Amino acid sequence: MRISEFWRLMDDEFGAGYSRVLSSSLVLAAVGGRTADQALAAGVSPRSVWLAICELQDVPPERRLGRDISPRRD
Fold this sequence. Notes:
This protein has 74 residues and is mostly helical. It contains four helices and two strands, in the order ααββαα. The chain starts with a helix and ends in an 18-residue tail after the last helix.
């Protein structure tokens, strides 16, 4: 997972504003007792950070891959 995908999932699940609040303030034991921002800056994989947030915030497994996006029809 790339960092851009991490942010897309965060924004889809929590909204653009709240996802930034969570990433800067929610301490995640699963990634060394750091916030998401700190963990990403330290080189922890975005997938590990995302899954840690999902566990702590009780994101259901069916939403952990993000929302379904319909293909574009040109």
